[in-house]
Amino acid sequence: MIVAAERQELAPLSRRLTGAQPLDLGVSWSLAGRLGSLPVVLATNRPGRRNAAAAVHRVAARLSLRGIVSIGDVVKSRLEDMELETNVLRDYAVAHQ
d(Cα 44, Cα 57) in Å, to the nearest integer? Predict the structure, then answer.
């Protein structure tokens, strides 16, 4: 399962799914298909940790999951890393002017 807040966050993945089928899983939007040889469920349930947790709970109650990826957490973590790198580079540049 790959979960995100908004459908557009999953658009690149949904375009790559083969055999894509919409599902009714009690979330805002969901789609099942295959990425390569792996079965995948894409799901959205609005922004926020609680909504993401509710999406996982609802999908897990209906399907057997082997793994969960939350796109929001991945993006948030990467943005925090990039912000730290930017601040370090800025401080270095200011110190060596």
Answer: 12
